[in-house]
Amino acid sequence: MTFIKNMLDKMKPTFSEGGKLSAFGSLFDAAETFFFVPSETAKVRGAQIHDAIDSKRSIFFVVIALIPAILFGMWNIGYQHDLAVGCTEDCGWFCQFLYGLAVMLPKIVVAYAVGLGIEIAIAQWKKEEVHEGFFVTGMLIPLIVPVNCPLWIIAVATAFAVIFAKEVFGGTGMNIFNPALVTRAFLFFAYPAMMSGDKVWVNAEYMDCINGTVDGYSQATPLGQLAAGEPVGYSAMDTIIGTIPGSIGETSFIAIMIGAVILIWAGVASWKIMLSTFAGGALMAYLLRYGDAEALNFEWWEQLTVGGFAFGAVFMATDPVTGCRVEAGKWIYGFLIGVMAIIIRVLNPGFPEGMMLAILLMNVFAPLIDYCFVQANINKRAKRAQIK
Amino acid sequence: MANVIKLSKGLDINLKGKAAAEVIAAKPSKVYGLVPDAFYGVKPKVVVKEGDTVKAGDALFVDKLHPEVKFASPVSGKVTLVERGERRKVLSIQVEADASQQYADFGTGVPADGKAVVETLLASGLFGYLMQRPYAVTACPEDTPKGIFVSAFSDMPLAADFEFVVKGQEADFQTGIDALSKVAKVYLGVKPGSALEGTKNAEVTVFKGKCPAGNVGVQINHISPVNKGETVWTLGAEEVIFVGRLFNTGKVDLTRLYAVAGSEVKAPKYVKALVGAKIGDLTDAVGVNTEKTVRVIDGNPLTGMKSSADSFVGAHTTEVTVIPEGADTHELFGWISPRLNEFSVSRSYFSWLLPKKEYTLDARVKGGHRHMIFSGEYDSVFPMDIYPEQLAKAIIAGDIDRMEALGIYEVAPEDFAVAEFVDSSKVELQRIVREGLDMLRKENA
């Protein structure tokens, strides 16, 4: 510990204002606060003691909560590949995991490198510390794209989202839309062929175990099958465990729920939003059933376990910056996300998945919900003043 | 039976080094100093010259805008120094104490008329201890308050326990309340099981809840919130005793019991001393650890102000606390390590498992300053019918209409102290609220 401290102290002048490498000052700051809790003490006036929690820790707990979904997603990449090739027997789960790791890692690296690169550059330009918000965004982006999404597209979409969804508004804490969802929305509308259909869900980048490389495998997601009016080819158990094709992080309901427990336990995400999103989704899914559940092999409640619903409800709807900030409003905010997501899924033939659009839509309406509650408080106060 | 109000929001911070229920007298300071900054909102005009002799209770300075509001010397003796800072700002007026104290006489007995009470308070220099809402500044005698609020307890960390302080002074406290009740209706907020529940001439309300339930602002919000155009006055519970002594004895006796506490105090207990005593004389009485760099705070660690042994204790101060400075503490990987010695509302730490544990917290901010990221943090520790985050944002934006609409007239910086503590974005809420109040006061002047 003293070694790192001494090294950082020695390097500090070079990166400080006037130093040789002052252009990288923000990067140095980021590294320094990554290693050590800042030793800045309270000012003369104001609270002299502070809670040990800071935004860095809170945000890293979201990344920790994502780990089950990441690990499962990696394994599932390999599993789906082997399933398509037809050699699940030859290769064990670890081998499938390694396959997924090899596919997934470059995506994570690209998302982080592009996003953090831009964030650090902008922080340096604004002479601010690098904010940690992107650690979550950078992890979310690879998890919400199909496995075959090319790296350059991830890079372009990440750059777009960081610049136009976040930094133009003033950075972490000031953005209107969830940057990770903007990335996905950008991809969805700019490169639709890469984001949906039945060719994007199974990876064939690497040699498969029997035949060498092939061009690609067709494999539809449950929602794709439903949108096409076909029966779902997966059991309810498959959708809960997550052994189905889909965006990398979204398939396993169980892994996402482990994340939800971590988030709620650490108090980082609002359980009110999560619960009300599921409640809204469940209500709408019940009302808008697809028809014959048996023929389609799809019960209404499976709406909550397939596609991006659970992942969105746990990790994206609960984004504190773009969501409702008034406690009571969180119930309405989450409920409407759930309702909208299912409405878009079921009633709009153009979009088999509705979670992304539902959350982005409610991001727009979150300030309105807040406004109603705050205005009620304001009106109450104004009325009280008049009576006197 | 007093009315009981239960507050569910708040946070009690359990710090090490609470003052034991034991009183010792501080060694009398050679020089006492009255610090005008402690009377927020007052523009001081010094009315004594260096070399003048004063009695305890004689004015040392007055408010430039309301010269009838005087500020009394805590001791009799010779004015030795009018300390001035940048742009001739008065920092302190220092009086060398006589060996035997002379007191100015203001007559005994509570006048029947409220006006006469105010006049006596003005003449004796005790009126300046009254604060007002809106703006959380020193009260103005021209206003007619709709009520005078006194909170008879503080639940801030390491705060003095007024139930202990008032022991033996109940008669003075009651006289003080009697006198104030001639001026306006007096509301007294007490904690559950308080011996003061039977106080006469005041509407007593019991507040059950966590910090900051003892804040007078929180109590006002629940009893009779301040509307635009209304004024309420507030007075510290110990200052009610000053008023009581004045009417019982005719003398201005500014003796107080200060809780000298904190993890770096060797034997934390109550120290008897006068307003304006040297902080060093208070801390010497109980001893301070010298192994590490400490921060001496004039007040409690949430609302107090960084001070030093050479400074004079502030007029409204009820406790002096000493905590580690912590600037030389370097914790590795704070964003992930368990840090068992840290206290947090977040369950990502383990302090929620140990509710009884007493913590030693240093003065580090423990995080980088950010925009407000996480929602609901302030709200969970802000037991008032006000949206704290939205109000703070309105202040940052300088939007005066919105500040008014969101209830800035009802708050003081101290009401945001717990919110500032728990904030993971490390926003300086108390400074922001103070700036907002000043902005509005200037606008409405």
Descriptive overview:
The complex is a heterodimer of chains A (388) and B (445). Chain A is 62% helix and 0% strand. Chain A starts with a helix and ends with a helix. Chain A is globular and about 70 Å long. In chain A, helix 1 runs antiparallel to helix 2 (25-35) and helix 15 runs antiparallel to helix 16 (355-387). Chain A has two domains: 2-35, no CATH class; 55-374, Ammonium transporter fold. The longest helix of chain A is centred in the N-terminal third of the chain and has 34 residues, at 93-126. Chain A has 16 helices and no strands. With 388 residues, chain A is an all-alpha fold. Chain B is of the alpha/beta class and 445 residues long. Chain B folds into two domains: 3-249, no CATH class; 379-444, no CATH class. In chain B, 22% of the residues lie in helices and 21% in strands. Chain B contains ten helices and 20 strands. In chain B, the strands form four sheets. A seven-stranded mixed beta sheet of chain B has the order 1-14-13-12-15-10-11. In chain B, strands 2-17-16-20-18-19 form a six-stranded mixed beta sheet, covered by helices on one side. In chain B, strand 10 (131-133) and strand 11 form a beta hairpin. In chain B, helix 1 (114-124) crosses helix 3 and helix 3 packs across helix 5. The longest helix of chain B is centred in the C-terminal third of the chain and has 16 residues, at 429-444. At the A-B interface, helix 2, helix 3 and helix 16 of A face helix 9 and helix 10 of B.
Quick summary of this structure?
Chain A has 388 residues and is mostly helical. Chain A has 16 helices and no strands.
